[in-house]
Amino acid sequence: MCCYDVCSPAGAVSAENWTYSKSRNRAFLVSREGESNWPKSLCTFSNVLTFVCVCLQEQSQAAAELLRRQEELENKAAELDRREREMQSINVSGGRKNNWPPLPERFPVAPCFYHDITVDIPVEFQKTVKIMYYLWMLHTGTLLANLIACLSWFAVDGNRGVDFGLSILWLLLFTPCSFVCWYRPLYAAFRIDSSFRFFIFFFIYVCQIGIYVIQSIGIAGWGASGWISALTGLNKSIPVGIIMILVAALFTALAVLSLIMFKKVHGMYRTTGASFEKAQQEFATGVMSNKTVQTATANAASRAAQGAFKEQV
């Protein structure tokens, strides 16, 4: 039996080659390989406990590293499975068919977009895109509730026809525009890692947050059941005022949630390697590859050449 001091540099041993036994409040590291040339010294039981704790810490770190690698492999496998399902759907259908908005087959208007977060969006971004989609749905529901609140207000106060009319306009205008102008750019930005689309989303979404703030304030005559309008309606009718207060709370919640998600998306954008220079390159590439731009450029060059030739003649 050999005893080694685990506190000394020479005693820095691994748990695979050494064990210990306790006797009379003393502990001995026992070599599983026989004698060693290291200096021998008596070890206290507390030193052995320190040695064991260090070994357990190393094992826990190794286990955490294995779990991290396993998670990375699972994410890569899910990403490969997503791409494989996407390719299969394209091959089977002869191309991706638009599926949003989900309309009946016999409906006279066909879907305008292809929308499938599990297929298009990488796994690590799917949760964020889903939250933004639910936020857009809340946006649409709030505009519908605003229309109902303004209608109720108009029912108890005949001078509020302008607010009711504008609430209809905001529902019909902001519902499709919000989907096309800020949700679709965000969807495409995460789908193809586009810096240019990220910048489109940031610019328009800042404007959207500003609109939420104005709507939550509720200036009379602007078609929004905000806090000022709700307090005014409360003086006319308590039930109508309660409905308008609920809508004002929804507008306020939209403003707060949108600001939180804006910061979250911006943080994720910074981790993707996107930049303003990359956005400029994407814009220039997209413009030059556009057939309309190419045709206009060719026509302009042809006219310039013809004009120069006529001047020489």
From TrEMBL:
<dbReference type="GO" id="GO:0055038">
    <property type="term" value="C:recycling endosome membrane"/>
</dbReference>
<feature type="transmembrane region" description="Helical">
    <location>
        <begin position="242"/>
        <end position="262"/>
    </location>
</feature>
<keyword id="KW-1133">Transmembrane helix</keyword>
<keyword id="KW-0812">Transmembrane</keyword>
<protein>
    <recommendedName>
        <fullName>Secretory carrier-associated membrane protein</fullName>
    </recommendedName>
</protein>
<keyword id="KW-0175">Coiled coil</keyword>
<keyword id="KW-0472">Membrane</keyword>
<dbReference type="Pfam" id="PF04144">
    <property type="entry name" value="SCAMP"/>
</dbReference>
<feature type="coiled-coil region">
    <location>
        <begin position="56"/>
        <end position="90"/>
    </location>
</feature>
<dbReference type="InterPro" id="IPR007273">
    <property type="entry name" value="SCAMP"/>
</dbReference>
<feature type="transmembrane region" description="Helical">
    <location>
        <begin position="133"/>
        <end position="156"/>
    </location>
</feature>
<dbReference type="GO" id="GO:0015031">
    <property type="term" value="P:protein transport"/>
</dbReference>
<dbReference type="GO" id="GO:0032588">
    <property type="term" value="C:trans-Golgi network membrane"/>
</dbReference>
<comment type="similarity">
    <text>Belongs to the SCAMP family.</text>
</comment>
<feature type="transmembrane region" description="Helical">
    <location>
        <begin position="168"/>
        <end position="186"/>
    </location>
</feature>
<keyword id="KW-0813">Transport</keyword>
<feature type="transmembrane region" description="Helical">
    <location>
        <begin position="198"/>
        <end position="222"/>
    </location>
</feature>
